[in-house]
């Protein structure tokens, strides 16, 4: 399981806070980092606060390990310090700790929600932040908007010492992973597992069991993970969402997903269970 420091989410900076502060600066899906700096590439607070106007524009995230984190969205990505650059938030997994990857992803999700819900979706009036919850309220029509979270399932399908892995058309690298898909209205998570695995690979599954969950902020998802066993069917891919799929043993794995993902944990669970030994 992941070992993560506990995050205390906050809606504002605590009064008399004297600890370290970190501001993540975003432009759409990208985050500001120091050039040529690995490990923790986030620019220091002093640099951010002298360069950007933070007054009234910071979106609080919370405190982890005594450090207060908040987020800032900027519209013009050219206006940044010389020693910094923007990279896709997802790419932090290559160089950064799991905690930083998680915080930077969460910050993007929350600040993107903050930016896109400035106006009421029902009547169009400007919204306000609720004082005690992460909610936008419209004082004109009382409509309220919570941050969007989209439930999705992710599932390992095994057949003896083999696991079903597929290459998605949206993957930027030739990675093979377990299958995943968003829950549709009216579905249970188990029904999503059955439908998605069938739609994407033509395989029927049985013995679906809960494995764990992981927030995945890049698509505002909550990934709910399951294990399942092959029941019947031959692999037949749709060539739209899935470009290739196959049964793999642990000694002939293709390129696998990032180790910060629950997909990776599902695959490692298969290996550790002994089913990976042929
Ligand atoms: Zn309204």
Strand content: 25-35%
Q: Give the SSE string.
A: EEEHEEEHEEEEEEHEEEH
Q: Could you say how many structural domains there are in total?
A: 3
What integer is the average pLDDT? Answer: 92
Total beta strands: 15
Helix and strand content put the structural class at alpha+beta
Question: Keyphrases for this structure?
Answer:
278 residues; Nucleoside Triphosphate Pyrophosphohydrolase; 3 domains; six-stranded mixed β-sheet; 15 strands; globular; binds zinc ion
Descriptive notes:
This protein has 278 residues and is of the alpha+beta class. The longest helix has 19 residues, at 98-116. The strands form 3 sheets. Strands 1-4-5-2-3-6 form a 6-stranded mixed β-sheet, covered by helices on one side. Strands 10, 11, 12, 13, 14 and 15 form a 6-stranded mixed β-sheet that branches. Strands 7-8-9 form a 3-stranded antiparallel β-sheet, with no helix packed on it. The two termini are 25 Å apart. It folds into 3 domains: 7-116, Nucleoside Triphosphate Pyrophosphohydrolase (Alpha-Beta Complex), CATH 3.90.79.20; 121-147, no CATH class; 150-275, Nucleoside Triphosphate Pyrophosphohydrolase (Alpha-Beta Complex), CATH 3.90.79.10. It contains 4 helices and 15 strands. Residues 120, 122-123, 125, 138, 140-141, 143 line the site of zinc ion (ZN).
